[in-house]
Amino acid sequence: MRLQAAIKNPNVSNEAKERSQHIFEDMESQPEEVHYPMKDEKSDTRVNAGYKATMKNPNVSTEAKENAEQILEERGAI
Predict the structure, then answer these.
(1) Which residue has the higher pLDDT, 22 or 53?
(2) Cα dist. 12→1, 28, 66 in Å?
(3) What angle do CA 1, 27, 4 make, to 5 degrees?
(4) Are residues 68 and 47 in the same domain?
(5) Residues 54-74, mean pLDDT to the nearest whole number
(6) CA distances (Å), 58 to each of 8, 45, 52, 65, in order?
(7) How many structural domains comprise the chain?
(8) 1 and 24 fall within a common domain
(9) Which of 17, 22, 30, 34 to pair with 48, CA 20 to 30 A apart?
(10) Long-range contacts of residues 46-53, Cβ cutoff 8 Å, at least 24 apart
(11) pLDDT number for residue 70
(12) How far apart are CA 55 and CA 74, in angstroms?
């Protein structure tokens, strides 16, 4: 973590070390939030395209093709 590196780095000023230490302590006291990327139409299109490619790929098992088809049906893409 960069904050810890700044705290231990002898080339960083005391003021910067104190600021980094304060930020680091604040981060530890707050619960970690999970951030998910925003879902948009473009990513849905790409995901659907991947499943469709799976269905046409001769190197993919029948089970995987059936799974891809089921997912596409659930998503309303076929």
Answers:
(1) 53
(2) 15, 22, 58
(3) 25
(4) yes
(5) 94
(6) 55, 22, 12, 10
(7) 2
(8) yes
(9) 34
(10) 48/72, 48/75, 48/77, 51/77, 52/77, 52/78
(11) 94
(12) 15
**Is there a single domain that holds both residue 28 and residue 49?**
no
- pTM flag (> 0.70): no
Two structure tokens written together for 68: 């891809």
**12: phi > 0 → left, psi -120 to 50 → alpha, else beta; which?**
beta
Supply the range of the domain harboring residue 27. Answer: 1-35
Annotate the chain with three-state secondary structure.
CHHHHHHHCCCCCHHHHHHHHHHHHHHHHCCCCCCCCCCCHHHHHHHHHHHHHHHHCCCCCHHHHHHHHHHHHHHCCC
Residues 2-39: tens digit of each pLDDT: 777 888 889 989 998 888 888 888 877 776 665 555 56
* Side chain identity, residue 28: E
